[in-house]
């Protein structure tokens, strides 16, 4: 009776909970019912006429990238369902996730022994039999409902109340024989001895012969066996349970989701790469050949802003000017003994997009000089979107030189002194102008070293990842040459042909076709810059018509813009085009632009087989391309796929609802000499099945070789060995991940459905950001938002990704129109993609961060969204439609839980687990730093490589920099101090030297005095100087450290030297027994005759003395290897590199404070902003104002600093309200109080300060 009452109470609670959910404000219950039961309605709108192509072109860099009339009809049909519905708020209907198990499924089944008690006939045997049969029917209904995954309380109540209405058929044995007992959520407890169990019917289980037998004894034996199998103590991993499983409901896979059914795919090979007798051994050899034998043949023609040719570069001019630049780079930038550039060094190429001639000369000049070029975009302002990440790439590549033109150099932002500003995150660069008048002519006997192409790096192409980080894809010389050969064979290039390039010539297909392959085949390239396309969209079509071009390199946006401007000029002919290469053909929405352009220009001579979409990526380079020659079985194909199937990663031909269909076109066959396979995008690289979507991987000699300086990421991308379903490797040939999602269709044609960077995984289903953008643009967006300025990304909320849509609103759009458009977009996405949108925000025009070519910078937009700095003018958030894994109700832990066991073991003194960091020996780092075993060698190397790089910046109480220290200044001052020790100290090897300096002089004297003392094989001891007004209490501590360390010398200032020998000091200690005292205020300009290098890194470097609050003196011996390991660990943990800034407010005399002040900056190369803690006594706001002014991410402080700030901020609230603090990592150097840390972390939020971060990370380092 007790079990039944509990179960009925659970049903009543669940039913009331459902009614409460249905009455949720803003959601109409009728809409919920209709959205589940309504069948798809036919399309309510007719297909748009062809005049739609003649509308005025709207602004944006990606206007018609997602244009599709079929998709527009699908969106309109989906919105027609909601046309007559009245909504309380502009929100889509609420949908329950099918992946989250309902709480009703976790309830126990109804008690099968209590149904007959409702009739009051327990005394009659006939009624008992009928009731028992009814109970069995209820149990069967419960099992069937559990299998079907029903989550509504109405089905449970109907099964309980209307179970008697079913007909009784079959015997009791048949019922039990057809019932699976393991489907019960909780097994029956046969050990209970309650009164209800005595009156219940006996339990029967099917025997092998089908005869019901009693199972009371067998169940007890089974429970006994399970108890014996259970270990006495849970394994260690059970003590650490992820909060994800305890807090929220774990998403369960949908049992009805489509699964791949085909066989495992086999790698697809491309056609063999042919061998041509006149192919050069290297690309530089091809330039030399054409430059000397065909000097007057045109190589590159640049257009002006009006679309007219302004300059033609011949092969002879290209060869001579590249030769002059190569000679200048190697011989004229430095001295003969110390050249600035050597073969193998990296240089940056900073050229505007409208000057392809100067870029081509610089690129080939670097190749001839065997210098590795790194093309980047021209920085416009100091705070360009993504500019800091570009600076990180330049710093990791060790770039100190940038090549540019005189015009571009004059256009860079300057300081008031006329110098180029220091761009945020960039290393200090030396700018070299490559104009001919600044170059030196090479002697006749000087020739560049042109050898056969090998595996040495040729150039580095930058790539921006999904998270916004910039990585450099290194391309070898043999890969560059092989890729040109493969493109020549695939595109059937021949000498003297003319090609039109509308792409960016610094990267991707624009560089491969327009700058590299054209030189190999002696082609003539007409480069149409992006600025010309804005003013004259038909300029590339006119160039094809005028020069009878055979090949054109375009994007979908160029096709659309040409169609919009077609009415301006009709007398053009495209009959000469053999290939119209659409380089973003990998975009699934490119098929509409290609079909529309063909239908419009077919009357102008454009052949259908000339449309050649291709798929490219920075890592794999050209993945596939459709050939321009008609071959048997090579006709263009399209596939109409189900978006629902694509979200589950399978290929299903759409046959049900055309509104949720995606039409994709093939991108041709695999490149010559290549091999392709499809692997799962997550986990191990397992080969996909033939009807499964995966990441395209390519194996050939034409791809990139590595991410420069990123060994770990390189191995996961460029060294992939596919495995089969059993986990065994399939061959030993490494593949390269392309970052493209697709499959191989009939006839070995390659289809691409999206990119890894645009993948949004929500509740186990995959959605493509480009598909979401296309759906949003199909909802009459021309009057509300700019079509090319929409960003779609995902954020993590409750352990799952949530979709966010951000768009720029037009200035003339009203609030009512905006909210109407947003509500319709949410409805369209909900209907077509079956996914909810977490947030849709409209921001003012021109407020989103842009890329150099005008597109939206997605990662920077996401960062602004997370920081709360988007400042939207209209926003619509619908968390109830997508957050379906809400937290589970709290449950009391039965018995002793894992936390109690952990506490008990800790109290008993048992160490149940330990934490270990990464192995420093196995982690790759900058080779230029790792090859030095001593910090003095690192300092000497930095003084030579980056002499003007500022390592330290010391602030006074007003927050003004009082002095800075560069690498060269520190090295020279350290040499002077070391020479003083040699001359005046009369020291022996192994002696200890006490360094006695105030924090104000630490940066210039103490820091590298101790380092150079190490060079002299002297052990340094840093000591806090005594206080002049309290010598009686502070001087004995100094004396104690001097005596314990057995110091042979004291280095200090003149002021402190007089204080140590004063009468006041004589009253506290014996001043006559001080060791030799040397002041370092006036240092001679004398260098060391030689620098001593210890024979082994295990030798002693310095002594670290610290005094506790109880007066106990502790000393630690630090070796050179320990110092290097400590600095290396801090660098890796805090992600320190040359362009980083950290703020340090610590005492620089021992422990972590001494390491951060004195050693880490030399090892890592970052800039340390030094704040003496004593300065906070006169200016409590000094530390926080420094963090705010310099936008510091990591700051190190002590407990006393935090205490001073929290106690003294009460009078500074009004000042703090006008400042914004970036996301910070507060690191304390001692075991601070948790209450103090948490109070400090909550202090800004509790006083409503403008914190740009939603959380404060508080880290405590114990040393």
Sum up the structure in keywords.
46 strands, alpha/beta, nine-stranded mixed beta sheet, globular, single chain, disordered N terminus, 1263 residues
Could you explain how this protein is built, in words?
The chain is an alpha/beta fold. It has 40 helices and 46 strands. Strands 5-4-13-12-14-15-16-17-20 form a nine-stranded mixed β-sheet, with helices on both faces. It has a seven-stranded mixed β-sheet with strand order 33-32-41-40-42-44-46, sandwiched between helices. It has a six-stranded mixed β-sheet with strand order 37-36-34-35-38-39, sandwiched between helices. Helix 19 (556-564) links the parallel strand 14 and strand 15 (579-582). The longest helix has 24 residues, at 125-148. Mean pLDDT is 76; it is low at 1-63, 84-215 and 1242-1263. Residues 15-99 form the DMAP1-binding domain. Belongs to the DIP2 family. It comes from Chelonoidis abingdonii. Residues 32-68, 80-123, 147-171 are annotated as: Disordered. This is Disco interacting B.
Mass-distribution shape: globular
Structure class:
alpha/beta
Neighbour order of strands in the largest sheet: 5-4-13-12-14-15-16-17-20
| H/I helix tally | 40
Strand content: 15-25%
């Amino acid at each position: 009776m007790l079990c039944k009452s509990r179960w009925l109470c659970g049903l009543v609670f669940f039913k009331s909970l459902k009614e409460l959910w249905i009455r949720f404000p803003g959601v109409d219950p009728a809409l919920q019912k209709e959205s589940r039961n309504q069948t798809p309605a036919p399309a309510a709108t007719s297909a748009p006429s062809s005049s739609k192509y003649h509308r005025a072109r709207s602004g944006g860099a990606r206007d018609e990238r997602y244009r599709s009339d079929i998709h527009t009809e699908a969106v309109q049909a989906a919105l027609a369902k909601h046309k007559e519905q009245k909504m309380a708020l502009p929100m889509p209907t609420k949908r329950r996730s099918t992946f989250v198990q309902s709480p009703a499924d976790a309830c126990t089944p109804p008690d099968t022994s209590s149904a007959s008690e409702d009739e009051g006939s327990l005394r009659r045997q006939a009624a008992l039999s009928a009731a028992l049969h009814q109970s069995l029917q209820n149990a069967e209904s419960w099992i069937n409902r559990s299998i079907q995954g029903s989550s509504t309380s109405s089905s449970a109540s109907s099964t309980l109340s209307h179970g008697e209405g079913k007909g009784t058929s079959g015997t009791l044995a048949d019922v039990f024989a057809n019932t699976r007992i393991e489907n019960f959520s909780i097994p029956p407890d046969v050990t209970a001895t309650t009164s209800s169990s005595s009156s219940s019917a006996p339990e029967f289980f099917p025997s092998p012969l089908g005869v019901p037998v009693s199972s009371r004894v067998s169940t007890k034996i089974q429970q006994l066996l399970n108890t014996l199998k259970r270990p006495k103590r849970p394994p260690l991993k059970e003590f650490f349970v992820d909060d994800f499983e305890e807090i929220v409901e774990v998403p369960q896979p949908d049992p009805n989701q489509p699964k791949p059914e085909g066989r495992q795919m086999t790698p697809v090979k491309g056609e063999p790469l042919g061998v041509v007798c006149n192919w050069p051994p290297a690309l530089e050899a091809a330039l030399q050949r054409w430059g000397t034998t065909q000097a007057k043949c045109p190589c590159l023609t640049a257009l002006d802003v009006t679309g007219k040719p302004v300059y033609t570069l011949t092969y002879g001019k290209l060869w001579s000017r590249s030769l002059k630049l190569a000679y200048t780079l190697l011989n004229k930038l430095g001295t003969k003994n110390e050249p600035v550039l050597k073969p193998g060094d990296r240089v940056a190429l900073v050229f505007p997009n409208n000057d392809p001639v100067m870029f081509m000369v610089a690129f080939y000049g670097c190749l001839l000089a065997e210098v590795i070029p790194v093309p980047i975009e021209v920085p416009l302002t100091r705070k360009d979107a993504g500019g800091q990440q570009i600076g990180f790439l330049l710093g990791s590549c060790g770039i100190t030189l940038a090549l540019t033109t005189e015009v571009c150099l004059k256009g860079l932002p300057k300081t008031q002194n006329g110098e180029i500003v220091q761009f945020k995150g960039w290393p200090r660069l030396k700018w070299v102008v490559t104009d001919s008048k600044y170059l030196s002519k090479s002697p006749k006997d000087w020739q560049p070293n042109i050898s056969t192409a090998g595996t040495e790096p040729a150039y580095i192409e930058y790539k921006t990842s999904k998270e916004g980080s910039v990585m450099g894809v290194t391309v070898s010389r043999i890969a560059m040459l092989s890729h040109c050969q493969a493109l020549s064979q695939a595109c059937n290039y021949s000498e003297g042909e003319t090609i039109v390039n509308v792409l960016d010539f610094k990267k991707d297909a624009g560089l491969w076709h327009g700058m590299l392959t054209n030189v190999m085949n002696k082609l003539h390239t007409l480069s149409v810059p992006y600025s010309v396309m804005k003013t004259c969209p038909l300029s590339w079509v006119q160039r094809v018509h005028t020069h009878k071009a055979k090949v054109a390199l375009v994007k979908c946006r160029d096709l659309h813009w040409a169609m919009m401007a077609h009415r301006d000029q009709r007398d053009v002919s495209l009959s000469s085009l053999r290939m119209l290469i659409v380089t973003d053909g990998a975009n699934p929405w490119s098929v509409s632009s290609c079909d529309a352009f063909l239908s419009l220009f077919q009357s102008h001579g454009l052949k259908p087989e000339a449309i050649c979409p291709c798929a490219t990526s920075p890592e794999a380079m050209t993945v596939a391309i459709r050939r321009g020659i008609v071959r048997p079985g090579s006709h263009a194909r399209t596939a109409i796929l189900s978006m629902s199937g694509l979200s589950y990663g399978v290929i299903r031909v759409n046959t049900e609802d055309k509104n949720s269909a995606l039409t994709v076109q093939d991108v041709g066959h695999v490149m010559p000499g290549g091999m392709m396979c499809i692997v799962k995008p997550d986990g191990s690289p397992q080969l996909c099945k033939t009807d499964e979507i995966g990441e395209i991987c390519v194996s050939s000699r034409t791809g990139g070789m590595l991410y420069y300086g990123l060994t770990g990421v390189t191995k996961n991308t460029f060294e992939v060995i596919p495995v089969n379903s059993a986990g065994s490797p399939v061959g030993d040939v490494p593949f390269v991940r392309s970052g493209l999602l697709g499959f191989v269709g009939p006839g070995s044609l390659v289809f691409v459905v999206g990119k890894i960077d645009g993948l949004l995984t929500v509740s186990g289903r995959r959605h493509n950001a480009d598909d979401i953008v296309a759906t949003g643009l199909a909802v009459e967006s021309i009057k509300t938002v700019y079509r090319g300025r929409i960003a779609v990304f995902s954020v993590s909320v409750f352990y799952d990704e949530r979709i966010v849509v951000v768009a720029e609103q037009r200035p003339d759009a009203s609030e009512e129109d905006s909210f109407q458009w947003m509500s319709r977009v949410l409805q369209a996405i909900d209907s077509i993609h079956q996914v909810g949108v977490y947030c849709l925000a409209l921001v003012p025009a021109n407020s989103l961060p842009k890329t150099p070519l005008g597109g939206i910078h997605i990662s920077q937009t996401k960062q602004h969204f997370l920081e709360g700095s988007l400042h939207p003018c209209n926003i619509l958030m619908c968390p109830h439609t997508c957050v379906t894994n809400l937290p589970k109700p709290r449950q009391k832990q039965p018995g002793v839980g894992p936390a109690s066991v952990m506490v008990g073991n800790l109290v008993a003194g048992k160490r149940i687990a330990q934490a270990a960091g990464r192995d420093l020996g196995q982690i790759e780092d900058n080779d230029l730093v790792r090859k030095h075993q001593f910090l003095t060698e690192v300092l000497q190397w930095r003084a030579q490589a980056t002499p003007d790089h500022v390592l330290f910046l010391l602030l006074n109480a007003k927050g003004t920099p009082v002095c800075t220290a560069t690498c060269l200044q520190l090295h020279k001052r350290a040499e002077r101090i070391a020479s003083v020790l040699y001359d005046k100290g009369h020291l022996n090897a192994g002696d200890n030297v006490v360094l006695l300096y105030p924090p104000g002089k630490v940066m210039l004297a103490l820091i590298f005095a101790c380092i150079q003392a190490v060079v002299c094989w002297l052990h340094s001891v840093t000591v806090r100087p005594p206080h002049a007004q309290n010598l009686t209490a502070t001087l004995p501590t100094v004396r104690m450290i001097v005596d314990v360390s057995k110091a042979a010398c004291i280095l200090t200032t003149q002021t402190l030297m007089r204080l140590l020998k004063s009468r006041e000091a004589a009253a506290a200690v014996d001043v006559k027994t001080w060791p030799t005292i040397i002041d370092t205020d006036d240092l001679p300009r004398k260098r060391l005759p030689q620098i001593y290098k210890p024979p082994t890194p295990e030798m002693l470097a310095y002594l670290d003395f610290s005094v506790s609050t109880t007066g106990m003196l502790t000393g630690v011996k630090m070796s050179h290897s320990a110092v290097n390991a400590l600095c290396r660990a801090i660098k890796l943990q805090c992600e320190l590199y040359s362009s980083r800034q950290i703020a340090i407010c610590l005492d620089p005399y021992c422990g972590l404070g001494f390491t951060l002040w004195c050693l880490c900056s030399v090892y890592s190369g970052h800039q340390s902003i030094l704040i003496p803690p004593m300065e906070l006594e006169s200016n409590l706001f000094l530390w926080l104002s420094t963090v705010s002014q310099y936008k510091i991410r990591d700051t190190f402080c002590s407990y006393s600093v935090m205490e001073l700030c929290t106690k003294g901020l009460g009078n500074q609230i009004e000042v703090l309200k006008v400042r914004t603090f970036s996301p910070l990592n507060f690191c304390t150097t001692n075991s601070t109080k948790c209450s103090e840390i948490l109070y400090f972390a909550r202090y800004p939020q509790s006083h409503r300060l403008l914190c740009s971060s939603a959380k404060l990370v508080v880290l405590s380092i114990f040393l």
